[in-house]
Design brief:
With 325 residues, this protein is α/β, with parallel strands linked by helices. It is built from 15 helices and 7 strands. The radius of gyration is 21 Å and the shape is globular. The C terminus is likely disordered.
Length: 325
């Protein structure tokens, strides 16, 4: 089966993961199986995670091609620890996350991710929970403007929210192109604009529908709790909101964040670094990959190795702390 989605920074991901024969690796965003196949080719075993039911044919093809090396478990990032326990494997040696929406999801008009194709205003990566239509048809002005600003960096978020509320009184939103047209009119058209006016609004809705940033935070914590000492965590992000979360997590968990209060020596002593950075900063795509796959232009890869220190959540529980790290 030909993959409809080119895995980004594949060479860099493999270098960071360094999968060995017999290793167990979680591909937390299985998708079309690009990373998974490359990892399996190294002789490792892969547990694929994905909440999107449409990836099943790709999973079936991988399972047939790599008998006994692969299994798919339907779950979002936050279910990583439970999925690993369900797999029956003894040790997790690596985990890779490819954050955001895939090109094959954007290409499926019926999924409602794209403002370039008419389809139902859905945007769910899974098949449960509220849709984008539910949000734009029921949320008040304040919450709508907030997500457009916070998740989409839309400077005229209030104007867009006002336009949506006025229009939905006449007729509820149900189609992607309908919403895109209303947003475009609210922002004064797109003549000469480098991107479509609806880009930021659609991104914000997608993130809100799927709780993408919350899932990322919980997924990183689950990987921390599940990886064996020496296990490798590799994360590829595509916009600053995601990268900021990953960078902050790795900075904190490697002990490179600003020090805590000198009046809390016990907590500081208990919080030993749970990861070691593999390299400073983030890796980005080279010129050859950018020429072949423009989607890679915003990709950043960060990686760290699990130490023998307990996960920070476990430390806080033992210390009786109620506040998250």
């Amino acid at each position: 089966m030909t993959s409809p989605h080119a895995p980004v920074l594949l060479a860099e991901v493999l270098e960071a993961l360094n999968p060995q024969p017999g290793d167990v690796v979680i591909d937390a965003t299985f998708g079309a199986g690009g990373y998974t196949r490359a990892i399996l080719d190294r002789g490792a075993q892969v547990i694929g995670l994905d909440r999107d039911p449409t990836v099943q044919p790709h999973a079936d093809a991988v399972a047939a091609a790599y008998s006994g090396q692969f299994q798919l478990i339907r779950t979002p990032f936050s279910g990583l620890s439970e999925a690993f326990a369900e797999s029956g494997k003894a040790q997790l040696d690596g985990a890779v996350f490819d954050i955001g929406v895939s090109s094959m999801q954007l290409d499926q008009a019926e999924r409602g991710f794209s403002f370039m194709r008419d389809g139902p205003l859905d945007m769910r990566m899974g098949d449960t929970g509220p849709t984008a239509a539910d949000i734009v048809n029921t949320w008040d002005h304040g919450p709508l403007a907030h997500i457009f600003k916070q998740y989409g960096d839309e400077r005229q978020s209030g104007r867009v929210a006002t336009a949506i509320l006025r229009r939905r009184v006449e007729q509820p939103f149900s189609r992607t192109l309908d919403l895109a047209e209303v947003v475009e009119k609210a922002l004064g058209g797109r003549r000469g604009a480098p991107i479509h006016p609806a880009t930021r609004v659609f991104q914000a809705l997608r993130i809100a529908v799927n709780d993408e940033l919350g899932e990322l935070e919980r997924g990183l914590e689950a990987a921390e709790a599940t990886l064996a000492p020496g296990g490798r965590l590799v994360v590829v992000t595509f916009h600053s909101l995601e990268d900021r979360i990953v960078k902050a997590f790795m900075t904190e968990r490697t002990g490179n964040a600003p020090g805590g209060s000198r009046h809390a020596p016990v907590a500081v002593e208990l919080r030993k670094p749970s990861f070691d950075l593999m390299f400073k900063g983030a890796r980005e795509a080279g010129e050859a990959e950018l020429a072949a796959n423009p989607r890679a232009r915003s990709a950043k890869l960060r990686a760290a190795i699990r130490t023998e220190a307990p996960a920070w959540g476990a430390i806080e529980g033992r210390a009786g702390k109620g506040k998250r790290a």
